[in-house]
Input
Amino acid sequence: MRKLISTGSPFEKAAGYSRAVVQGDWCFVSGTTGYDYATMSMPETVEAQTRNCLATIAKALQDGGFEMADVVRRITTSPTRLSWTSSFQSSARPLATSGRRQR
Output
């Protein structure tokens, strides 16, 4: 059985995607940015954006019956070096790919 999870973001509807899809024992999360849905704005710092992104992911996982410790793969793209991102799930230790996007 497939379960579609939405955060209610207008971007999900406009682009035609779900924040997460649960299929059986799997939960796939995508399209997550640092956008602050409470203020409908993008924070200035990469740290604040990352906190928002991870909170959105955690909520989507929770809505699907999962938690951050269940994550097995992480792909991160950022315009800055992300040496501090591992602190969000150090116990899960998922496979990780990090890329730096040039502006």
Q: What stands out?
A: The helical segments are 10-15, 46-63.
